[in-house]
């Protein structure tokens, strides 16, 4: 009788173990190699950004601000490129183009801050015109 009870208990434990294994599947990132590559690429972009930003710490004043904007811009563009590579679509292509235009404008505007008076105003006007042209090109992509 004890042997029978012991065998029933062992069989029920094995059945519960199999059900538990079916219910608790590993996360998608662990099983999907594409997702693991995507996560690794995002981690690399983040590490590159931190290294670029750390390199800016040695700079001062406006040069540091420009360096930080460029580092942020490279990260923003790299993430948009990664998303576009992962799932190519018109929407992702537009987002990538928008990111490039926005980053170029932000960096140009930051570079204009070191100028004075009319020279600064002309620089800002040129940056704004370049941004407007880029946005017009993106709008043309939608059609």
What does this structure look like?
- With 143 residues, the chain is mostly helical.
- Helix content is 87%, strand content 0%.
- It contains 6 helices and no strands.
- The longest helix has 26 residues, at 61-86.
- It is flat and about 95 Å long.
Can you lay out the helices and strands and say which pair or pack?
Blueprint: H1 2-23, H2 28-31, H3 33-56, H4 61-86, H5 90-112, H6 117-142
Annotation keywords:
143 residues; 6 helices; flat
Structural class computed from helices and strand pairing:
mainly alpha
First-last Cα distance: 80 Å
Main pleated-sheet profile: none
What average pLDDT do the residues reach? 83
Order of SSEs, N→C?
HHHHHH
The number of helical runs is: 6
Beta-strand percentage? under 5%
Rg over CA atoms: 27 Å
What's the total number of strands? 0
Indicate the low-confidence ranges by residue numbers.
Answer: none
Q: Which bin fits the share of residues in helices? A: over 70%
Shape: flat
TL;DR of this structure?
By secondary structure, the chain is an all-alpha fold. Helix content is 87%, strand content 0%.
């Amino acid at each position: 009788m004890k042997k029978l009870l012991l065998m029933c208990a062992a069989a029920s434990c094995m059945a519960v173990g199999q059900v538990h294994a079916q219910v608790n599947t590993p996360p998608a990132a662990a099983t999907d190699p594409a997702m693991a590559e995507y996560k690794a690429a995002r981690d690399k972009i983040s590490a590159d950004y931190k290294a670029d930003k750390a390199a800016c710490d040695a700079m001062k004043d406006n040069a540091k601000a420009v360096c930080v904007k460029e580092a942020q811009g490279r990260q923003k563009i790299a993430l948009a490129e990664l998303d576009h590579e992962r799932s190519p679509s018109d929407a992702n292509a537009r987002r990538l183009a928008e990111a490039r235009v926005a980053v170029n404008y932000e960096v140009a505007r930051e570079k204009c801050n070191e100028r004075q008076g009319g020279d600064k105003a002309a620089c800002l006007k040129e940056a704004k015109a370049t941004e407007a042209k880029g946005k017009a090109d993106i709008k043309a992509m939608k059609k």
